[in-house]
Design goal:
about 5% helix; mainly beta; 7-stranded mixed β-sheet; disordered N terminus; single chain; Jelly Rolls; 7-stranded antiparallel β-sheet; 2 domains
């Protein structure tokens, strides 16, 4: 059952001034496809990023649905144009993939804040409908291949020479360990058949040798970490491996190599000269 959480049970708005999120119009009875990225406005409290939408509709009762295959959705809404304003309704949902709230609009405008329950990034689908109108499936929802089920994770694929990091939906066969599939070019394909670059089995990676990127020397820095495909972007290549960088900065003191693309696992390398 979807939870409709009052403001007091969700959060207290921060009194500190925060950067203003860009406002996007939200039209009723249309599915809006969006993406949370590392460059979006920060939440006005805690951690994470957010997208902000504003809608004007006739007075009445409305339903707001947020769905994502990439993160645990968190949707909140309230009167006004500012996503840092007073919140009236908020929900984390109950299944980890969707959240729903219902609001009683007396007059407009109203805002909708899209975020993740925990720090998360990726694509989502947002829809505003009258509360008495039956909900229909979002047209952009992924078609799950027969015999497979969608996982909570995204995969990160890089083909040598492509100069692009691909975010991929990940699937598995229920009750079959190691059955890794991704949606690639409109079909479900076994991860091992696609030839994506991974550094983990290369001798220079295993030996901890330094790499060179943009004429500078980098060495392994800490342990591999899981990153969203939206948190990094292609920066260059080293020995056929994609070197990924933080898209929010031009001075790269840390870069990343894919060591396990199926789980979006990256090894940080720190600049040493």
């Amino acid at each position: 059952m979807t939870r409709f959480t009052p403001l007091a049970a969700v959060l207290l708005a921060s009194a500190v001034a925060q950067p203003v999120a860009a406002q996007t119009p939200l039209n009723p009875n249309r599915t809006t496809n969006g993406e949370l990225t590392a460059t979006d406005a920060p939440m006005p409290y805690g951690t994470g990023r957010m997208d902000c939408y504003v809608f004007n509709v006739p007075a009445g009762r409305y339903r707001i649905n947020l769905d994502s295959d990439a993160f645990h959705p968190f949707v909140i809404s309230g009167p006004g144009r500012s996503c840092a304003g007073d919140l009236e309704r908020g929900s984390f949902g109950s299944d980890g993939r969707s959240a729903e709230i219902r609001v009683n609009v007396v007059r407009g405008p109203w805002f909708v804040r899209v975020a993740a329950k925990e720090y998360g990034l990726g694509t989502y689908r947002l829809r505003l409908t009258p509360a008495d109108q039956p909900r229909t499936s979002a047209p952009s929802a992924p078609q799950i291949p027969p015999g497979l089920e969608l996982t909570r994770n995204m995969a990160c694929g890089y083909r040598p020479g492509s100069r692009e990091l691909l975010p991929l939906r990940a699937y598995r066969q229920p009750d079959v360990p190691g059955s890794n599939y991704v949606q690639y070019e409109g079909r479900a394909a076994a991860w091992t058949s696609l030839g994506f670059a991974e550094a983990r089995q290369l001798p220079w990676y295993i030996n901890g040798d330094p790499i060179t990127f943009q004429g500078r020397r980098y060495e392994k820095y800490g342990l591999p970490r899981i990153l969203s495909p939206s948190e990094v972007q292609f920066g260059g290549e080293y020995e056929g491996q994609g070197v990924m960088v933080d898209p929010t900065t031009t001075e790269h003191y840390v870069v990343y190599l894919i060591v396990n693309g199926r789980d979006c696992e990256f090894q940080p390398y720190q600049r040493v000269d």
